[in-house]
Amino acid sequence: MTDAKLMKSLSRLGLPMFEPSEELDVNETLAEVVKSRDTRLWEGFPVLLANAADTYQFAYDLVEKHLPAQEDKDRFHRLLLLSLSLYSFYHLSFSWSSRYKKQLSSDDATLVKQWRNDLARNRTLAWGDVDLDPERLKGLFELYFEQNADKSRQRREKYEEYSLAFALSQMFSPKQKELFKKRLEGLPLTKTEQEYYSRSVKKKVVALANAELHGLARKLLEK
Fold it and tell me: Which residues contact residue 135 at a Cβ distance below 8 angstroms, ignoring those fewer than 6 apart?
């Protein structure tokens, strides 16, 4: 086993820190997919493009620089139209796609609508001798949606966790915060801890639970 293969194997087995950290050129990668003439990769092109756009790295002219042959430039254009059709089906738009749609010829705009209807009716999307499966196109894109939703949920939960930790640190000393959490989780307190909780922590908890005080604090923040 070569070192490169070993590193990739380690990464796939759960040690991603061993994966070689080469900078990804998204525009070159998109160009390679265009040139591949592999319909399986072309059916995943809208997902790749959405991810590239999400990282603000996609640039139409940079992809074209990697496509010296006119036939590949034409395929790239068709794959962009395919992506627009799929995004339209899911009512999605990106900054690049909005600009690109304004430049479409009437024939291209008609093709985008036709492919969108084909997707809605599960009809094969075709150009020339190329046939693309509508169910695979939608399935790959819906998987991208699910993964994105999961990432967003994790980011939101992490933010809420940090936000709560910060708010607690503003209200309670480290010891008070410890007692607050123990009481919240139903853990037993020693006699000394119970006395300290009643004397200092509980008063703050009662104040925090006051709806009128909470409303006033919200108003102050909005001013």
Answer: 122
